[in-house]
Amino acid sequence: MLTDIEIAQAAKMLPIGEIAKTAGVPEEKLEPYGKYKAKIDLSLLNELKDKKDGKLILVTAITPTPAGEGKTTTTIGLADGLSRIGKKAMIALREPSLGPVFGVKGGAAGGGYAQVVPMEDINLHFTGDFHAIGAANNLLAAMLDNHIYQGNSLNIDPRRITWKRCVDMNDRQLRFVTDGLGGRVNGVPREDGYDITVASEIMAVLCLSSSITDLKERLGRIIVGYTYDEKPITARDLKADGAMAALLKDALKPNLVQTLEGTPTFVHGGPFANIAHGCNSVIATKMAMKLSDYAVTEAGFGADLGAEKFLDIKCRMAGLTPSAVVIVATIRALKMHGGLLKTELSNENLEALEKGIPNLLRHVSNIKDVYGLPSVVAVNRFPTDTDAEVKLIIEKCRALGVNVVLSNVWAEGGKGGEDLAREVVRLCEEEKGDFRFSYDSSLSIEDKIRAIVQNVYRGKDITILPSAQKEIAKLRELGFESCPVCMAKTQYSFSDDPLKLGAPEDFVVTIKKVKVSAGAGFIVALTGDIMTMPGLPKAPAAEKIDVDEDGVIHGLF
Question: Does 94 participate in catalysis according to the annotation?
Fold first, then answer.
């Protein structure tokens, strides 16, 4: 059996100009980065403003497990399936972070015969967007510390600096550092730390911006710390916003690539969904909708995280309305939610599968009952799934009135996604949704958090620690009450405890810290042991990655 990278390397890619032509992108709007990838000039979106939008399809998933769900694979296979049945489809995905690529999760360009290519480029440096975001982030940090060193005319309290440096790598050693050491000429000593680049507010800002002008406005609003008399200091106060925007002007342009079957794909931006809003850029999504009849996008992790933030934050800010939602599930993952160990997943176990199905049904219920959207469950089939297990999940779902389609896109590409594509088209044409948010923007910060916990997670209530209560009071005083809430919690459970698998009930979520991402335009509520800088595992994926004499990369999966 070929590995993902071997399948990708064997593919005959079309020149990016041909992909652009298929998508309807004029040659003068194309900025090639080599033969097989390109950026698209932002002016195209303005020129298409009067063109009717295509249908927006969101692909989300059950609560993730180490067994994997194949959400990106399903997204790609669905779009290829739509193309095969005669629909004009485009994809809008996030860019992978080097942290997971070299860590434990691996790449994020799909898998099997449902991939976007060139997968090595996409999973590594790609077009340099993440480097630009890191540079802009660290320029702001450097200007902040330099301002203090040069006399601190803004009266910034070094103990109340909230802005961190960033690097796109899993490096736990950098979570907490003390810098500015070595004498007066080397800066002002203070406690500092690093986030991973995908957790930087600048990543969220880039993905939510609608234009260069909007980007500059959002960058200027970023709060980096507070003065001795507790007044917020912004990037605009430091006169950093213009230079940051200059670093990001090309990164704001969406990247065009292709699937193995030649479906045009935007891969742009990549905020994490457990610590940020977990969606690709608004610009890429809107451009895909203008250029196609069906724009297929995905949001990170389970529907309680990525889909919730896609719907409550991205759609609210960008004025988007999805036409249908695909919820990806695997029999392997559901058996883990039913209590089976990862080492036992290859064995048929109908009892564990039945115990795990409530996790899937809760996500389906949220999409239907909380957000009012039509949905279909895509069962992403693995070779170890038995016919009896497939039959059980289909029967259980259909008995409860849940649409379910077997997807075989990993093994068959677009052909294995044709049934799913037909069901998605049917949903768009026959079932009109009644889209609504899970909370109203007029609610208090506390009640927004409570609404997410009770309506989406199905928890009993929230507990807000005293320090977080003070932070909420300060944000209310500063005028951020109307912002949507971005929950930072474990991806492995509906609750804030990663060990509570399945569909837990009667739990209380503890809010430990609340902060504002003023440039992005949302409030972040941190729960559990969430960290903004992951660490590498005992045996990182980087140990298996290599390149040979001919420049061919191996071990990237």
Answer: yes
Catalytic option among 29, 39, 55, 71: 71
Measured CA to CA, the distance from residue 213 to residue 230 in angstroms comes to 29
- Enter the DSSP assignment of 314: I
The two structure tokens encoding residue 251 = 């990164």
What are the Cα distances from residue 544, in Å, to 44, 282, 367, 376, 457? 41, 35, 39, 37, 37
Q: How far from each other are the two terminal CA atoms of the chain, in whole angstroms? A: 13
- Annotated active-site residue in 55, 87, 105, 450: 105
pLDDT at 272: 85
**Which entry of 102, 130, 310, 382 is annotated as an active-site residue?**
382
Confidence of residue 432 (pLDDT cuts 50, 70, 90): confident
Helix axes 241-248, 212-221, angle to 10 degrees: 140
Catalytic residue status for 309: no
Residue 106: its pLDDT value, please? 65
Residue 59: closest CA among 318, 272, 323, 289: 323
Percent of residues, the chain, with pLDDT higher than 70: 99
The verdict on whether 301 is a catalytic residue reads: yes
**410 part of the active site:** yes
What is the three-class DSSP state of 529?
coil
Query: Rounded to an integer, what is the distance from CA 417 to the centroid of its chain?
Result: 23
If phi over 0 gives left and psi between -120 and 50 gives alpha, with beta otherwise, what is residue 252? alpha
Q: Which residue has the tokens 């895509």?
A: 378
